[in-house]
Amino acid sequence: MSGVTESPPRAWAEIDFEAMRQNLRIAKQHAGEKEVMVVIKAGAYGHGLIETARAMETEKPKFFGVANAGEARRLYKAGIETTPYILGATLPAEREEIAARGWTPCLCSLEEMVHFNQLGSVKAHLALDTGMGRGGFLPHQVDEALEMLKRCEGIELTGVGSHLPVADEDAEFTKRQFEVFDGLVERIIEELQPDRENFSVHLSNSAGLLNYESRTTNLIRPGLMLYGASPLPEHQEKLQATMTLKTRVSLVHELPKGHGVSYGRTLLDRDTRAAVLGIGYGDGYPRALSDQGTEVLIGGKRCPLLGRVTMDQIIADVTDLERCEPGEEAILFGRELLVSEIAEKAGTIPWEILTQITPRVERRYS
Ligand SMILES: *Cc1c(COP(=O)(O)O)cnc(C)c1O
């Protein structure tokens, strides 16, 4: 079969690492040049775990934020040197590997402390629950946690962190959360007297670092904004989209007024030139975008979707385009049509859209 030219994929995602590095610079500027944990969980929000880690390692992050030991292991096997930080409670079966390979867990319970202590030596952060309810010590449990830590000689506490549940929704709650966190951190530092040079204090995700300040933190944990989507619309302008989701026109055809389009037969209200595009919910382009006034870009112009999103194909109205030919590129989201707009049309959030793009969509890096 040699000599056969393999055809390009029907749907692909173009990833722009220069834009990602630029977004990181914006995050750092906002945070007053603190250190950074680059959050690359969930395959770097669909951008590709290893490729993104390699591209961002040049920026010298202090940690890569991952969801679990499996993601940390993939970084390790790829030779990534930046320490993985596990963003949540660890499973008992993950802990031996975490300790042995020097990854940093956040301690969410006394049980975790006792177990890690038995495994030898580990550098770990203390997780505080200041409102997220997803793990960590509540303010009234901090004394107990510190008592236990003092008895766990195998654990070196190298940081403390907490997480923000409503930094993009509720300023009053979030401000109070910052105060509570800062107060707890000051107490912990006084009590434990850690080596401040190597002690990380962190609270802010993207929304947190864009809009709030802390007196104790020295590390930020941006995720979404690095990928060019702002959780707060007023900051969107500063960021550049890092993923452009593309497909191609496979067919252009004329359909008469009153004809049905796609499953469920959405009826055309005019004679229509329709373009069939090679992407669908099997690629992670949500079916929920059907009949929501969703648009795609063809030749730089916005064209409305017609009818329902199917597994592998969608249909767009190109009646108003001067020309549209099979093979032509179409953009589902990117710089000119933001993933946030698509998320809103689909009734979800940009985090979900990015992480749901399936492996069938080839990632192309520049
Ligand atoms: C995912 C995550 C982040 C990154 O949040 P963004 O809103 O994407 O910036 C930060 N911290 C923790 C604990 C997370 O789980």
List the helices and strands and how they pair.
Blueprint: E1 11-15, H1 17-30, E2 35-39, H2 41-46, H3 49-57, E3 63-66, H4 69-77, E4 83-86, H5 95-100, E5 104-107, H6 110-118, E6 122-127, H7 142-151, E7 155-161, H8 171-192, E8 200-202, H9 206-211, E9 219-220, E10 243-255, E11 260-261, E12 266-267, E13 272-277, E14 295-298, E15 301-304, E16 314-317, E17 329-333, H10 339-345, H11 350-356, E18 362-365
Parallel strand pairs: 1-18, 2-3, 2-9, 3-4, 4-5, 5-6, 6-7, 7-8
Antiparallel strand pairs: 1-10, 10-13, 10-17, 11-12, 13-16, 14-15, 14-17
The protein binds pyridoxal-5'-phosphate.
Pyridoxal-5'-phosphate (PLP) binds at residues 39, 41, 87, 163, 205-206, 221-225, 231.
Shape: elongated
Mean pLDDT: 97
**Regions with little confidence, pLDDT below 50 for 5+ residues:** none
Structural class from helices and strands? alpha/beta
CATH level 4 superfamily of the largest domain: Alanine racemase
Largest pleated sheet? 8 strands, mixed
Integer tally of domains: 2
Number of strands: 18
CATH class of the largest domain, named Alpha Beta
Helix content: 25-40%
Q: What is the CA-CA span between the terminal residues? A: 30 Å
CATH architectural grouping of the largest domain: Alpha-Beta Barrel
CATH topology of the largest domain: TIM Barrel
Bound molecules: pyridoxal-5'-phosphate
